[in-house]
Specification:
The chain is an alpha/beta fold. It has helices at 29-39, 52-59, 68-76, 96-103, 120-130, 145-154, and strands spanning 5-10, 18-22, 45-50, 83-88, 110-114, 133-137. The protein starts with a strand and ends with a helix.
Length: 155
């Protein structure tokens, strides 16, 4: 049994959706293009937003800049997004087995991630176990929250 929980903000309960998870702290064009490209593949898009304690543990005490509920609300407002949930649970629950248990009830049709994702192998394994496709999407060059934060610090 997973220690992760999906807390639905914009419910979507039909099987076969493409699922992505991430922080989505400061929404930028890289996020929008990535999510749009996933949705363009033809499956409904469901987005999981990592909760605040998980982000803080992974990225440091100054993150996230925006609370999970607001990040989820912004994502739910995008036309290409069919459902949004917050990934809640202890920061140490980040292995493939945790996400398999979290996502299995959703019966995803695909799991998507960007090229260069350090967890790509684990995502591919999870997709295979879930009976879903694994989609590696092109990263959008020079578009990241880190770049935005670093540029703002120089302003």
């Amino acid at each position: 049994m997973s220690s992760l929980e999906a807390v639905w903000v914009e419910p979507y309960d039909l099987p076969g959706a493409a699922v992505v998870t991430g922080v989505f702290d400061i929404l930028h064009v890289g996020h929008v293009r990535y999510l749009g490209a996933v949705a363009d593949r033809g499956l409904p898009l469901v987005v999981g937003v990592e909760d605040d304690p998980r982000v803080r543990a992974w990225k440091g005490p100054s993150r996230p800049f925006n609370p999970a509920a607001e990040r989820a609300e912004v994502l739910a407002a995008l036309r290409c997004v069919s459902g949004v949930f917050v990934v809640a649970g202890p920061p140490e629950a980040h292995g493939p087995e945790d996400y398999i248990d979290l996502l299995a009830p959703m019966r995803p049709g695909a799991l998507a991630h960007t090229a260069g994702d350090p967890h790509a192998g684990a995502r591919a394994t999870a997709a295979a176990i879930l009976g879903a496709q694994c989609w590696e999407m092109a990263a959008i060059p020079d578009r990241s929250t880190t770049r935005i934060v670093n540029a703002a610090g120089k302003g």
